[in-house]
Amino acid sequence: MSIEKKPGKLARLILLSPIKAFINSRSKIIIERNDTLEMEGPYIILGHHVTNWDPLILNSYVKEPICFIAGETLFRHPLLKRLLDFTGAIPKMKFKNDTRTIRSVIKAKKHNRVIGIFPEGNRNWDGTTEPLIFSTAKLVKLLNIPVVVATIRGGYLSQPRWANSFRKGIISLSFEKKWDINTLKNKTPEQIHHMLTEALAYNEMEWQLKNNFPYKGKNLAHYLERLLFICPHCQMPSHLQSHQDQFQCSSCDYTVRYTPNGTLEAVKHPIIFNTIHEWNSWQLEFLKDNLLQPESEEVWKSSMQDTIELSISDEVTPFKTISKGKIAWSPNDKSTIHFTGHNRKKLSFPLANMEGINIHLHHHLDFFIENKLYRFTFFQPRTSAYKWLKVSQHIQNMLKQEEVKRSK
What residues does the Phospholipid/glycerol acyltransferase domain cover (predicted)? Predict the structure, then answer.
């Protein structure tokens, strides 16, 4: 199968029936609204990205097979590539311009396909929509076809990105046709980007505070340190540890409980933040203010050392392991991440040269340097790839600002 030839009804039935049964066994699915029932392709479905199952969940409730834009790294796995090619998925290099993607999407439109896009470019971490990739607005304007916004409520609480375990509860789906053909034709990309941002804005905990649905499971706080890495009580990074439904700082003993409703309750010391989103928002601002402060240099130098497996992929080949070893970053050498392998191999990665940096799943940090795709795999399950992503992005922004100042 391909973009030109979509899977037939029998093939879709064979593929989706067990998936739909599996999803229904784990969650109570509610369809709030489905405008796609009366629609024919081509049209676009835009959605916020909350679980690994999002493409399959949406495909299960849309009558036409969806041609999703998917991360190009997924196509480097031979077996997964076959499945993606069968469904007509379109490869896209994350956070990099890719003209092949545009050509494939135009082809999908010509063949009356339904085109699925997650404009955040990645799963969000705390149940709140992340900034949208601006090129989505350009693509929407270029295609000039109807646009449907899909909202998955309860998806984040069912399967937080930082967790390994699934939590059983309600998932509510909505497919709302927001714009028809020619509606956005005369809008600028900037105007469309603003409209898309408003249409896709979503905060899971704002929805949950109105509904108070339980999401039951075991070890609810397990691996929360993959996301939250700074304690709000003592403000120390990399001292937080999860155990069953509790989350504790080993430096100051600040402890909270993660509840089935997705909120935080005090265990030791008064509660500071009631939700993970509030805690994460605070830690990202604290990181920006504190990371390069002289008095915090040793703290961050100690925090930014982790064991990884370093891999590389050239062109579209599968990843090849270079070596296991340790990566390190420090404020007094802010522009570079250093790798020392167990085989004594040493490599330096200048942050200014690292393009398209992103997290695949929850433990792979991927980036390009000179068209080679590198991957840091944090194989120790409690390590935070998210910490490395946010530190790297902050330093990259600082380096760009410094470059602009020098050029004036």
Answer: 43-155
Whether the pTM exceeds 0.85: the reply is yes
Instruction: Tally the residues of the chain.
Output: 408
Residues 8-35: tens digit of each pLDDT: 777 777 777 887 888 888 899 999 999 9
Rounded CA-CA distance 263/242 in Å is 15
Of the candidates 337, 343, 397, 344, the one whose C-alpha atom is nearest the C-alpha of residue 367 is: 337
Which of 14, 13, 20 lies closest to 55, judged by CA?
20
| Bridge-based pairing state of the strands 264-268 and 255-258 | antiparallel
Amino acid identity of residue 241, one-letter, is Q
The secondary element (H helix, E strand) that includes residue 164 is none
At 86, list the tokens: 């069968």
Residue range(s) occupied by CATH 2.30.29.30 in the chain:
297-407
pLDDT at 1 (0 to 100): 47
- Tell me if 139 sits within 8 A of 37, measured CB to CB: no
CB 54 within 8 A of CB 27: no
User: 2.60.40.10, 2.30.29.30, 3.20.20.70, 3.40.50.300: which CATH number matches 297-407?
Assistant: 2.30.29.30
Tell me the Cα Rg of the chain: 22
372 phi, psi to nearest 5 deg: -100, 135
342 closest CA partner among 319, 310, 376, 318: 310
